[in-house]
User: Fold this.
Amino acid sequence: MFPELVSLCEESARLGGRILQQWRSRFTAREKSPANLVTEADLASQQAIFELIERRIPGCRFLGEEGLFINDRPSSIRWVIDPLDGTSNYVHGFPYYAVSIGVEKEGKLVAGAIYDPTRDEMFTAHRGSGALLNGKRIRVSPTTEVSQAMCMASLPVKADRYDEAVERFLRALDVAQSVQRTGSAALNLCCVASGRVEAFWSTSLKPWDMAAGVLLVEEAGGKVTCVDDSPFVLDEPDILATNGTALHAQTVEMLKRKS
Ligand code: IPD
Ligand code: CA
Ligand code: CA
Assistant:
């Protein structure tokens, strides 16, 4: 069942990615709330992904960012979809955005794919079988010191200088080797899973930003908790994903408010 789910994740993420690239030169953007953008590309990608999955495995439950909420079905399977993660980047032509599709069975993440159409990078995972990039096994980085680490954070879309998330970012600048804010939580999780960076955190995410990426990090050997090290819950906005070495505890410490 899981291999079948992961290949459908992959096929639908690739389909969504193709649609994003087709819309690149002709979309219009509007604000759902201040600085929170949506385009025809988000909507077309989500619709195509939904139709494909519904055709292949009819009757599943769905949660998709752009108003896709089907929960009144008896299925044990729920698809959690972000048809375009990094919309702001997409709108500005900054090539760092992706399609993210995660699958839960009986409430547990079991399969996922994140597709970066700019680089043609397909990240996939299924529970118990590791994480892959374009079919090749990936692992988290072995770095054990946060002072040697590259970290990434996702801030709220309209964060100002007084935001606790910004204060946390500033604390990290004092300690980590490098801290980036890049605009796609899903791809940031792929960066942790593939060992490109050591840690990623946010306290303002939605399930569709994280579902596939959390499984990727765990299957690549990393660790996922909340930023205070309490257990991660997909329906809560709080996440810290690291390579799972001693660096995890150091990152928790680094992010704590010192008062
Ligand atoms: C956003 C990105 C960003 C994060 C925002 C998300 P969207 O998703 O993941 O990194 O900081 O909180 O909303 O809106 O581009 O799908
Ligand atoms: Ca998103
Ligand atoms: Ca989105």
DSSP finds seven helices and 15 strands in the chain. The helical segments are 2-23, 40-56, 87-92, 164-175, 185-193, 207-219, 247-255. The first strand starts at residue 29 and ends at 33.
